[in-house]
Amino acid sequence: MPGKKILLLAGDFVEDYEVMVPFQALQMVGHEVHAVCPEKDAGDRCKTAVHDFRGDQTYLETRGHDFALNATFADVDPAEYDALVVPGGRAPEYLRGYDDVLDTVRHFFDEKKPVAAICHGPQILAAAGVLDGYEMTSYPAVQPEVERAGCTWVDEVTVDGNLVTGQAWPDHPEWLAAFLDVLGTEISHGPAAAAADD
């Protein structure tokens, strides 16, 4: 089965793991991933933030890597993409202010294409007005916001139709596995792995 063409929304101070890990993992299994940011071009970089969970009432934030974009947001036609990834961090709080970002998100929901959102990423979905009737999760502090947007919030990685949601980067194994399933991705371990299992 050929790989899918996936759009990934980034911005300055996107959460480091939540942008880097899906970007690399989805390519690793054969998908084409275009990482974009409003007002930035392919080759530009977004600064990232690492959100760490150390038992405090909220996360601790430190400076992460510089994440290189590989496509230009202004050139994006959502109709050319099969799926969307919306990472968290601090970027969603201002990316939701771009009408073009909200229109892009609405396209994926209107067409029932797979969407994976994690942590604060659902802030963009709430602003786009696409969450009504969904069961989903997010970073717990975002729960009131997404519930006001019409969803039912649950405390675990959730798949509801085309939408796959997780709370934060510790959910990556389950969240990405669920997204790959919704994408219809089949992973073969090859003859060497099969022989090792015998």
Automatic annotation (TrEMBL):
Keywords: Hydrolase, Protease. Residues 4-180 form the DJ-1/PfpI domain. SUPFAM superfamilies: Class I glutamine amidotransferase-like. The keyword Ribonucleoprotein does not apply. GO terms for molecular function: peptidase activity. The keyword Zinc does not apply. Pfam families: DJ-1_PfpI. GO terms for biological process: proteolysis. InterPro entries: C56_PfpI-like, Class_I_gatase-like, DJ-1/PfpI. Belongs to the peptidase C56 family. This is DJ-1/PfpI/YhbO family deglycase/protease.
